[in-house]
Records
---
Amino acid sequence: MLDLIIRGGKVVTAAGVGDWTIGVKGEQIVTVGVDDPAQTAGRVIDARGKIVVPGGIEPHAHLASLVTMHPEGREFTLGPEEDTVGMAFGGTTTHLDFCFVHPKTDIPTALAARRARWQGRSHVDYSFHIALGGALPLKIFDQIGDAVSEGFPSFKVFTNETLPPHPGRQPFKLDFGRIGLAMERAARHGGLMVVHAEDDDLVQFNYERFRAEGRMAGANLHLVHSKLSERLAFTRTIELATATGAAVYFVHTSAREGVEAVVEARGHKLPIYAETLHHYACFSAAEYQRPRGFCYHTYPSLKLPEDQRALWQGLVGDGVSTTATDEYPTSLATKLRGEKIDDVTGGNLGAEARMGIIFTEGVVHRGMTLERFAQVTSTNAARILGLYPRKGVIAPGSDADLVLIDPAIDKTLTRADFHVSDYSPWEGWNARGWPTTTILRGKVIVEDGRMIGQLGDGRLIARKIDPVMLRRPAC
C-alpha cells in the first residue's frame, strides 16, 4: 500500500507529458505510469483537469538579509519563516539563499550562522550559495574545497558594487584576480561560479557623471546599470572562466547583450548558464515612470522591450536556463523609500508569483511547452546547482516534490492572492493558470488555498553537481 496516489492529471516528466498516475511511498516517488485501479494508498488526490509538474526551485533569494541600500539603519528583509509561506503557496518546494563571506569572517563561520538562522524556520527545503565579497584574505579560497564537500558547491561573486561605495556598507565586489582564484578552486573541486556581472568602472562612472549632470532621478537607473555594462562584464567573465576551466551561472541576466554572450559561449561548448527574472521578462524601464514603479526594480536595472524579447526567446527556446526572482521581501514603505539612482531599494518580491507568471506568459501566451516550463522553473536549476535527480523531476526515486497547476484559472491578481508582505508587484496582472496544491517530500503543504504544512517542514539539502554540468552546457 502506498502513502499517496495522484490520479487523473497531465503529468510532466523528463520523458514527456502523459495522463499518468504517480505513486508515493514515504518521501519519495515510487511509480509513474499507467493507472492501476487496484493500487491503494492512504490518500488519493484527484488531479483531473490539473497539470502536475515538479516542485519549483527558486535559485536566487535574499531572505533575512540586511537592506544595504539604506545603510543608516539595520533593517532586514523578511526571514524564511515569513517568505517561504508565499513560496509554498506559489509552488516552490526548494529555495537557495546566500551565505555572505566578507573579510572579517570565513566560510565555516558564516555558514554556521546561516544554517542556524534557517534551522526549523522554513516551510520548504533550502540550501545556500556562498557569496564571496571584498578584499578577502587569500586563505579564504583554500576553504572552497571543504565547502563543496559539505554540500555547498556554488560560489557567488559580484564583479561590481551595485551602488556607490558607502562606509556603512559591506563590500560586494570581488576583484577579477580573486574571481580568477575562486574559479580555479571551484573548477578543481567540482564547484560552480554564480556571477552577478556588471562592469564596475562603467557603473561607478555613470553614478559620478549622472550626479554631476543633476540626473539623479531613479528613472535613469537603466542608463547607469546599462546594457553595455552587462555586455562587457559577461564577456570578461566568460574569458576568465575559459582560462581557468570554470563553469559559470550568470544570475539575473537582464539584457539582450547578456543573452547573446551566453548563447555564443554555449555555441563553443562552454559550461555557461543564464538565469533571468520574471520581472525582467515582464517589465521594462518604462515602469520607473509609473506610480509605485520602483516596486519592479532590482540590480541590475530593468531594461528595454528588445531585452524582454531576447529573454523570452531564450526561455521558450534556448539560451536562458532558469527563472528566479532575486527575492528580497520588504514592506512597501521600504521598497519605495528611495527615489534616486543611488538609493532605490533593489530586490524583488515575487517568489510566490514566479511559477504562475511563467505559466501564464510562457505557456499560455508564448507557446512554451510544458516540458520546457518544468525545465526553466525547476529541472534546470536542480541540474545546474546540484539537486538533481533528488529534486526537479517527477521520476521514481526522486523526492515527491509536486505541484498541481489549474490551467482553468483566469483571474486578475489582487493583494488577497498573496501571502507575503503588505503588497505584491503582481497586483493587477492577469493570470491564466495558477498553482493550487503543493506537495513537499510526499506531504501536502498547500491545498486549494489553505496552508496545511508547518514551519520547519523545510530541510537543508546537501548538493553535489554532476561533473557533466561543469564540462559542457548540459541544459
---
Amino acid sequence: MSCSEGLGRLVMNIYVCMQTAFWISIGFICYAYVGYPLLLMLIGVVRNRPVEKGPCRPTVSFIITAYNEENRIREKLLNTLQQDYPRKSFDVVVASDCSTDGTDDLVRSFSSSGVRLVRLNTKGGKEAAQKQAVELTAGEILVFSDTATMLEPTAITSIVKNFSDPTVGCVSSVDRFIDTDGTVSGEGAYVRYEMFLRNLETRVNTLVGLSGSFFAARRSVCQGWAPDLQSDFNTLLNSVRNNLRGVADPECVGFYKNLSDQKKEYDRKVRTIVRGISVFMRSLSLLNPFRYHLFAWQLFSHKLCRWLVPFAMIAALMANVVLASSSLFFQGTLVVQVVFYAVAMAYLATKRLPSIGMLRIPSFFVMVNLSILDAWIRYFRGERIVSWSPSKR
C-alpha cells in the first residue's frame, strides 16, 4: 500500500469516526430532551398509576428554611398562616440556619400565632437546619418550603390529599416562575417542559425529582435525614428505597420570581446541579434495573442523560467542524450550530435582541448546559456544596 493510499484510508476512517460521533451526539441530545418523554407517553398508553386522592387530615409539620431572610420572612409567615388547614393539626416551624440578621426576632414575634423557631447555633447548611426541624417536630406529614415561595390558601390541604394513596411517599408542587415585569421567560418555557415531564412520570411510575421550593413527604421517608445531601432529590430517592413513589400535583402551585441578575441565576443553577450530582453519586445502586425496574431507567434518562448533554453538544460541534469540508449537508449543520450558539451568547451577553421566546429559549438552553458543565468541573475538583445563601429575588 502506497503512502497516499494509506493517508487516504486514514482520512476516510477519521471521517467515519467523526460521522459516528456526530450522529451519536445528536441522537443522545434528542433522546435526553425528546426521546425520554416520548417513551414515557408510549408507556403511559398501557400503564397508568393514578393517585387515589381522598379526604385526609393527618398532622402536618410545615418547615420553612431560612438564612438571613429578614426582608421576606414576615411576608412568608403571613402567607403561611392563611392556609385553610385545621390549626390544631398544623405546626409551623422556621428552621433558621444560624441567621445573623433580624430573621429570628421576626419569627419570634409570630409565636402568639403558633409559629415556632428552630435555630442552629452554628451555620450548617439548608439540610442541616431541616434535619433539626424534622427531629423537633411530630407531624405525620412533613411539608418543606422556601421563604421566597408563596402559596395559595388551599395548598396544604391539596398536597396532603395525595397521601390518602398508600403508594405515595412524597409529593411535589408545580413551579410558577414570574419575571419582574410579569412576563414568562425562556425559563418559564423550560419549567413548563419540566412540569409536563413530571406529569408523565407521575402517570407511568414515579417522579425522579421534587421542587425544592415546596414539597411534602411522609415522616417515614425522612428518617435518617442526610444533612449534607440535597433534600428534595434525596427525599424522592428515599421514597423509592421504601417502595413508595413520588408524584406531582398540578393543584399545588409554588409561586416565585425569576432572578433578575443572570450571574446569580447561573450560580444558583451550578449549586443545584453540584448538589444533585453528589446525591446521584451516592445512590448509584438505584440504577440497578433488576431491583428498581422502571425507576432505574427513569433515573438514568432524566438525570444522568440530561447531565451529560453538554459533553454531547461539544462532541457534535467538534465533529461537525471536521466534517464540514466533506459535504454541503455538514456545512449546513455547522452553520445551524454556529448561528444557534451565536444568538444564544449574544442574548446572554447583551439582552438587546428582541424579547422573543424563540430567541430567549436558546439562550436559556445554552446557559443551563454551561452550568451543568461547570458543575461537573467543580464536582470533580472536589467541591461539595453544603452551606447556602438563598438567592435574593
---
Amino acid sequence: MAERSLAWRLTLTSALTAALILAAAGLLLARLFNQALERNFDARLAAVMDGLIATVEVSAEGAPVLNAALADTRFSLPLSGWYWEVTPPQGRGLAEAVSGSLLETRLQPTSQQLANRDKDGVARFYMTDSEGKALRVIERRFKLFGGADDYSFLVAGNFDELKAERRAFHRALTTVLSLLGLGLLAAVFLQVRFGLRPLQRMESDLAAIRSGTAETLQGSYPSEIQPVADELNLLIKSNAEIVERARTQVGNLAHALKTPLSVLANEARDKNLPLARKVMEQTRLMSDQVALYLDRARRAARAQTIGAASPVDEVLAGLARTLERINRDRAITVTVAGERDLKFRGERQDFEEMAGNLMDNACKWARAQVTVTMHRAPSADGRHWLLLRVEDDGPGIPETARAEALKRGRRLDESKAGSGLGLSIVTETSAMYGGSLDLGAAASGGLRAELRLPAVAV
C-alpha cells in the first residue's frame, strides 16, 4: 500500500489504536494478576498467623511462649525466607518468641510500615531479609489470654518463590496478546480492503468510460459514495451535451459565414476593378481563416470527449490500401506492422486525420517504400501511450529544417502538391490529446515521423 493511500492510513491508525488498547489491557491484566497473587499470599500468611495465635501463650513473666511447633517446616529451616515473630508490648528483647529460621537475625520493620493498617488492623508491606530475599510481611496486634497489653504478631513469607509463576503468566499474557494483535491487524486489513472495494469498482468503471467500453457508472454503490457516483454521471452527461452543442454551433457558424462570403466573392469576381480585386483577396483570406479556426474548434471539441476509443490497426490498414491505390502509377508500397489490437483514446476521425497526413506526406516523398509501425510506448507516469512511426525512403529533411516543417503553411519544396498544413495539423491535434510529434531520420535515409498518442488500457 502506498503511504498516502486511504487503505494505508486506515490500517495504520487501526493498528496503532489496537496496539495501545492491547498494551493497556496487558498492563491492567498483569496488575490484576499481581494483586490476586498478593491477596492469595496474604491469605496464606494470615492462616499461619491464626495458627500462631492459637499456639502462643503468655508465661508468668509476660513473655510469649510457643506451646506447640508449627506444621510448616519452612519456619524451621535457617534463613528460608519464612519467618515469624511474637513481640511483647515492652519491646524487643530476650522475652520475644521467634521462628527457628531467623537464627540470630531479627526483622526490623519501620514505624511507617507498621503505621499503615487496613480496617482489620493488619499492616501489610514488603521488606528484605539478610539474604536479600523479598519478603511479604503481615503484622497484627493481638491481646493474649493472660496478658494485659497487645502483642505484635508478625509473619513473613518468601515472595521470591512466586517469581517463576509471575514470569510464566507474563509470557503467556504477552504471547496471547501478540497473537490477538496479529489477528486484529489481519482483520483490519481485510476490513479496509472490503470497505474500499466500492472505490476500486468505481475506479474500474471510470477506466471503462475513458476506454470507451461504457458510457456511465453502472450499478449501485454504498450510500456514502452513491452521491459521488451520481454527480460523476451528471458530469459525464453534461460534458457530452456541451461537446454536442459546440459541434452544432460550429456547424451553424460555418453555414452562416459561408453564404455571405460566397455572395461577396461572386459579386467581386465579375468586376475588374482594384476594389473588386481587393475584395476577392480579402474574401479568400477570410474563408481560409474561418475554415482554419472552425476546424480547430471541431478538433478541440472531439479531443475533450470522454470515452472515445478508436481501433488503430483497422484505420491504418484502410489508409494503406487507399494510398497504394492513389500512388499506383509510382508503385509505392505501404507496409503496416507492429502490435495489434491497439486503441487510440480519442475520436476516430482525428486519428484518421493525423495518421493520414503523416502517411500521405511519406508517400509524396517516398521512392518506393513507406513503412508504418505501431506499438505501446513506455511511460513513467502510469498512463498508457501508443507510438506510431511512419518512415519513407525519400530524401528526408535536414535536421536544421525539421522545426520549420512543422509550422503551419510552410512548404520546403514547392514542386510537391499540398498546402503545407499537414504536419502542423498533426502537431496541433496530437497536442490537444496530450501527445506529440517528433521528426527524425529513418534508417533508409528518408524521414521518420513518430506520433505519440494516448492509448486505451488493455
---
Amino acid sequence: MSTYFKDYPDAEGFFGPYGGAYVPENLKQEMVKIAEAYYRISKSHDFISELRQIRKHFQGRPTPVYYCRNLSERLGGRIYLKREDLNHSGAHKLNHCMGEVMLAKYMGKKKVIAETGAGQHGVAMATAAAYFGLPCDIYMGEVDIAKQHPNVLRMKILGANVIPVTHGQRTLKEAVDAAFDAYLNDPENTIYCIGSVVGPHPFPMIVRDFQKIVGEESRTQFLEMTGELPDAVTACVGGGSNSIGIFCGFLDDPDVKLYGVEPLGRGTKPGDHAASMTYGKPGILHGFKSYTLQEEDGSPMPVYSVASGLDYQSVGPEHAWLHDQGRVEYVTADDKETIAAFFELSRSEGIIPAIESAHAVAYAIRYAKEHPHGSILVNLSGRGDKDIDYVAENFGILGN
C-alpha cells in the first residue's frame, strides 16, 4: 500500500466504486476548479510552510499521546489517547478548516459556508474564518442548536453567522442540505467547506489529506513511547474525518488492527441509530456514493445518535472502500455504553471526552477487557465541554 495515497482517489474522485461528484453540471465545474487549485497549492513550498507554522504556533500541534494508567490498570489492557481534544478549538476539525480557508483565500473567495452537527466543525470554521479575515455562514439544525448551546455561543463570539435549519429532522443531514443550497446560489464568490470526508470530489480527499497529520504524529509518538506500534487503533465514525485521519498513519502496518466505531444509538431498528456502514447499502447522498441508510425508494432514512456529530445517513467513501477491502473493521457502540464510557474516562483520568469520541472510548474499554495484554490507541477527537449541559440534563451528573 506504499502508493495508496497516490492511487486513491483516482482522477475522478473514486475509491473503488465509491466517491465521485454527483452534482449539477455548473457545480461540477466548480468542483474541478477547487480540485485544480488544491493540487497547485498543496504542493507549494509557501503553502506547506504557512500551514506548518499555523499548526505549531496557532493550533498547538503536535498534540500528545497519553497513556490512561488508571483505566488500563483496572481493565487489564493498555489504553492510549491521541489528544485531539487539546488541539486549538477543542477538536480535530481545525486541522482541515485552516487548510480549507487557506484554499478559499487563494481562490479569491469572498465568503466561506459550512454545516455543523455537534458544533465542533462550526467552531473550527469560525476560528479559521476569523484568522484569515473572511465572513462565515454556518448552518445548524435546530435540534443540534439546542443540544450544543455552548458551541453556538462560541461560533457567534468568533463572528460567524449561525443560521438555524428548521426543516426535516432539523439535524446534520438537513444542515448539509441547507449549506449546499446556499453554495449553489453563488459558487463563484463562496466556497462550501465541508466538515468531513464526505461530499463530492475533491472534498473527501482534501479533508483526508489535512487530517493525515493525526495519524502521522500518532505513529511516531507511539513508537517513541513504547518501542512498538499499537495492537489496535480506534476512532468514532460519523462522516469519518477523525477516523480516516488517524487510520492513515497505520494503513501500511497490517499487524495494527483498525476499528471504526459507529453509533448504534437506541438499537438496531431503522431510525434508532446512524450506523450506515453496519446497516446501510451503497447509495448516493450529497454528491457522493457510499454506504447509506436509505428507504426502499432511495430517500435518506431517519437516523439518531446521542452524539450530534455522528447522526448522519452516510459515511465517507474512503471508509466504504477500506471496509470492502477488509482493512478496517466497523463496529458499533450504543448510547448506554457510550455515556458509561463518557463518565468512566472523566472519573478515571480527569479527561471529559466529546460524546462522539466516547463511542471510541467505549470500544477501547471493551477491547482492553478482551485483550489483557494488548494495546489500543484511541483518537480522542474532541473535548466534552460542549456536551456537559446535555449530559447533566438527560443522564444526571452521576451518570445514572
